[in-house]
Amino acid sequence: MSSKEHSPEKPWQEFYGPNLGVVIELYEQYAEDPNSVDEETRAHFEKWGPPALEEKVSSSNASEAGAIGADMINAVVGAVKLAEFIRAKGHLASDIQPIWKNHKNDDLLSYERFNVTENELRKVPVKLICPDAPSNVTNGLQAIEHLRNVYTKTMAVEFGHVQDEEEREWLRRKIESQTYADQLSQEDKRALLERLTSVEGFEKFIHRTFVGQKRFSIEGVDALVPMLDKAIGEVRKEKTDHVMIGMAHRGRLNVLAHTLGKPFKAIFAEFLQAPNKLIAPSEGLGETYTGWTGDVKYHLGADRQISDDDQDETIVSLANNPSHLEFVSPIVEGYARAAQEDRSQKGVPMQDTTRAYSILIHGDAAFPGQGIVTETLNLGRLNGYHVGGSLHIIANNNIGYTTETYDSRSTTYASDPAKGFEVPIVHVNADDAEACVKAVQFAVEYRRQFKKDFLIDLIGYRRFGHNEGDEPAVTQPDLYTQIRKHPTARAIYAEQLNKESVISAEDAKKLDNDMYDYLLEEYNKVNADKTERKYELSPPDFIVDGLPKIKTGIEKDKLISFNEQLLEWPETFKPNQKLEKILQRRAKAFDGDGSIDWGLAEVLSFASIIHDGTPIRLSGQDTERGTFAHRHLVLHDRETNETYTPLQSFEDANASFAVYNSPLSEQACVGFEYGYNVFSKETLVLWEAQFGDFVNGAQVIFDQWVSAARAKWGQKSGLVILLPHGYEGAGPEHSSGRVERFLSSAAENNWTIANCTSAAQYFHILRRQAKILQKNTVRPLIIMTPKSLLRNQAIASETSMFTEGEFQSIMEEPNLGKNREAVKRIILCSGKLAVELQDYVKKNDEDWSWVHIIRVEELYPFPRRAIRELLKEFPNLEEVKWVQEEPKNMGAWTFMEPRILEILPQDVPLSYIGRTHRSSPAEGVSNAHKLEQKRIISESLTRKN
Fold first, then answer.
1. What's the CA gap between 338 and 343, in Å, rounded?
2. 255-258: long-range contacts at Cβ-Cβ below 8 A with a sequence spacing of 24 or more?
3. DSSP letter at 288?
4. Mind listing the pLDDT tens digit for each residue in 904-922?
5. Which of 300, 475, 675, 936 is the most buried (most CB within 10 A)?
């Protein structure tokens, strides 16, 4: 051979598979028209000739070594194209549907489509087609059949949308080498059959025993339970502390019974509404289920502690979830992030993603149908929200209640929305239990390798109607004709193992009978208890009694020290010049007549809280700087754009501080922060909306969790929500934080709703919230925060109000009400309007002795006693006015009116001043707003004739 043939520069030896296929295609193009390829490629072909196969061809084909002839080139091109098509489109011709066997794509992968024959394929080297094929694959035809086997059977994979080359190669290599999962031993197979028998037996027993009762059966995706078993077992190899599961109600009872170990008799007791002496634990949080209003059985969560002699303890938890399906997903990821972080030291929390693993089980109609899914997927790789990858499983019944797939999604698969986030997808036939379990091992290994999400589309069916009480054949007659004839996953697997001589048909039947006998015994134990059940729907005393008296003031020297430390940054750090001057003004806040504005009060409260050992997590839309440029917790170097966060370098800190700009999402972000807070109950977690009305986007999270979770499930939360609120002519958007919506759900001391009008009030309420976090009395805090008032000196506070004061539920206007006997009218109001009324009084030199203004700073719990006792001090009071800037059907009026009437002195009337009833929260024209605002203030401060 010539030296030229063995030259290390010869390029073709470095190509194989799809890359060589491209080269061969280019050579074909070049052979037809040399000018059709670029100059560099043309030079290569002129120098080296066509791609050669001598390094790739087996000895039996040695006579064909050398330059590739046209026929061979065509065969290689066809083979490579076919191989790539199988990888990309094999799922369309796969056996992943248990019921509807789709034959429309049977010819999708035919040899004829790619102009190759079996004989030609036999001559193509394996390495050109499948470089990672098992050793028993010895020619191109076998390589193609191997690819068909791994990409088009009961497990089909989609990963072409994954952009990272290393990930794509890893996925391809694992799939094609079939090393993505272990082979099941005979013992493993028997255990899998036993698990499927237990899963099916539980559902059959309930179906027979509690006829017509809702249970949202797992039947049709029975393999979900052994899949969860496998996932838990695999992540425990990493000594994971927590496995957190979120799911809707489909299959939930079965997961509770098997995955969470909830006793069958406890579930039977719930069906019988019998006394249940077994208190269900609450989501791995070391607490018990103590909700006083309760919830239906298929919404409840539970936890389970798993420990082996040679492994650390792992807590497996299933999150409580009402029938809002996917909205639990970000909450569970919030749990996981909190469990992964160490917040005990100053600076940024230290995250270890192996400490917690989140598993999110979705519905096939809900996954593409509900925006919360994509909001949650978007969190997956963001700095403040990632959890090192979640396992997503779509429990795919191919139907949504009664709605067919063609009416519920515009995508080929339910899983398609995940493609936009580059999440690898495995479709697996729920009837192939072994494939389902292997898919999970593949998913966990991917997460271990790349710390990213993975999705398994578990494609099954729904054996009965949506809730077992309806007749599905009314709307899907053909489908349910097929389903009623279709054997169960357990029956299919039992037959398979019988053929493999792993277990006999008689032994498989005995497993089924034994399960029924055991369940009957458990049922009889519960059914025999005829004790009359007592229902107690009142909250416990520590909820009714309200918050304890808490000291929140701080010594002046500490405040000064905190302030000085927070105004220091590295010598080489150069913040924006204008911002630097603004921040340095804070150094004079404690001098002489200096005062502390809202922004400084906030940062001092944060500093004092982490000094006390309470970690803080603050997130929201533009929160690092603050929407209104008042906060500046994260500074940017004007030359390098490097960032510096003083609270993370704060020397006196004894806990972590984290602040993140969130994605433009409310539903998922509020859910995530709620979950984070519920799990890390020692942490002050705050979420801030860019404008108060943005909170509308998280309404489900507030209605179902933040407001009601304590009463339903005994779930504690001290989450703080900051909602910029105030009417300043900005139009119907960005004026209102919709305080009326929070007040309409205010009951049983479920949360605190405040509208603070001074920096000191804000300082104290944040410190009070931090101090109650680990007490039984803890509850969420909703604060209507200011916008234009942020820079108004009227809300700045003197130092003494921080050192000696505390949060006041009501505040008197200091310039009015000196002569109690002269007061005829009392104005009750809240928020920015109180400051505008104060400004009007100051600017107009009149006799104001007849009027007094009381600011209601804490709207809920309504400060009944404080207002009632104060009103007694005005013996000649003639009228009380509630004044607000919001429309009459919004704001606080409808909440306040009956409560104020209860405590008014006899014969003193209550009336309303403010905007009339409106369908939109504010005027859209600035001048119209000013006129309305002027009228409200004038009417409030005009004396009766």
1. 9
2. 255/218, 255/224, 255/225, 255/228, 255/318, 255/361, 256/300, 256/302, 256/318, 257/202, 258/195, 258/198, 258/199, 258/202, 258/225, 258/229
3. B
4. 999 999 999 999 999 999 9
5. 675
